[in-house]
Amino acid sequence: MKIVVLDAATFGGDLDLSPLSEIGETTVFNNTAAADVAGRLADAQVAVVNKVKLNKENLEGLDSLKLICILATGYDNVDTDYCRQAGIAVCNVVGYSSDNVTQLTLAMALSLINRLPEYTQYVRSGKYSESGVANRLTPVYHEISGKTWGIVGYGNIGRRVAAAAEALGCRVIINKRTAKEGLDCVSLEALCKTSDIISVHTPLNESTRGLISEKLISMMKKDAIFINVARGAVADEEALCKAIEEERLGALGIDVYSTEPFGKDHPFYRIKDYPNVCLTPHMAWGSYEARVRCLDEVIKNIRDFYAGGKRNRVDI
After folding, report:
1. For a Cys-Cys bond, which of 38, 170, 216, 295 suits 165, CB 3.0-4.6 Å?
2. Do domains 2-94+288-306 and 98-279 have the same CATH topology?
3. Residue of 256, 260, 192 whose CA lies nearest to 221
């Protein structure tokens, strides 16, 4: 069996990928351009990928390729319809980063509600030392306890965020496709109108693309905190940017973008230095522990596939 890793650089340079070599001849590329995909997978049976887009244009004619293993939960970068037609199995990994993404979601919310960037900058600049005053309490910040936290998407991550938010004293409301007894499920419009904190934890597909629209953003409270750790294209990025610029939204915490990395023409580039904006480089999933778990799951997926199983298949 020949295994090709197409974009190891996106998985961190500190992780040992040698366990893959125990199940097959493994070739590792740090990055792969779209034009190089077909050549690099020409005689491979297994492709291991994180962010490279795989579709008919670069997969057609790869008769040896039997399995694509995604080093992630989301699989919107792989054309599963084409893979199904071409007889290429596709596996993702679930649950490996739920704690990690929950951790960053909470970190963003707590940092933004406490105005930590502004307070730490006050000390870092030397102004605190020069002030002669023992404390500083501006800008005004607020307690998270008693706030309403709206959660869009109630999968593994959404459930963990809900539990953590409740532990912090928040009232939690949920928007999910099917209401469930025991949960405070509301419409997306009601969630946007009433939430003090909104976090998004839904996959990207045709029904969720652009889900957080300009109209919904306009309904949010003026001091609301909006956090997206799901997929960038789930929300209208230009509308979010304008809401911050026009002070119609309290704060923004974003780890995912419709274009990664985003360029200078992206709307978030205009607000990247705002103190009420926390932008991180799609790192919520990637603690060392989570990446070790992810690689272990990929190896299990490969072994199971060649044993005739269907573990974590997303093409069926």
Report:
1. 170
2. yes
3. 192
- Helix H or strand E encompassing 151: strand 148-152
Instruction: List 211's β-bridge partners, or say none.
Output: none
* Known catalytic membership, residue 282: yes
Q: Which of 60, 166, 245, 260 is catalytic?
A: 260
Active site residue 115: no
CA distance 75 to 42: 22
What is the distance, to the nearest Å, from the Cα of residue 42 to the centroid of all Cα atoms in its chain?
31
Annotated catalytic residue within 159, 171, 270, 282 = 282
pLDDT of 170: 98
Q: Which residues contact 141 (CB under 8 A, 6 or more apart)?
A: 113, 114, 115
Q: Please state the domain extents for the chain.
A: 2-94+288-306, 98-279
201 assigned to active site: no
Q: Report d(CA 234, CA 232) in Å as an integer.
A: 5
CATH topology of domain 2-94+288-306: Rossmann fold (3.40.50)
Give CA 243 to chain center in angstroms: 22
C-alpha–C-alpha distance, residues 45 and 63, integer Å? 9
pLDDT tens-digit readout, 108-167? 999 999 999 999 999 999 999 999 999 999 999 999 999 999 999 999 999 999 999 999
Residue 177 predicted with pLDDT over 90: no
pLDDT band, very low/low/confident/very high, at 181 (cuts 50, 70, 90): confident
Instruction: List pLDDT tens digits, range 213-258.
Output: 999 999 999 999 999 999 999 999 999 999 999 999 999 999 999 9
Domain 98-279 carries which CATH code? 3.40.50.720
Q: Is 149 helix (H, G, I), strand (E, B) or coil?
A: strand
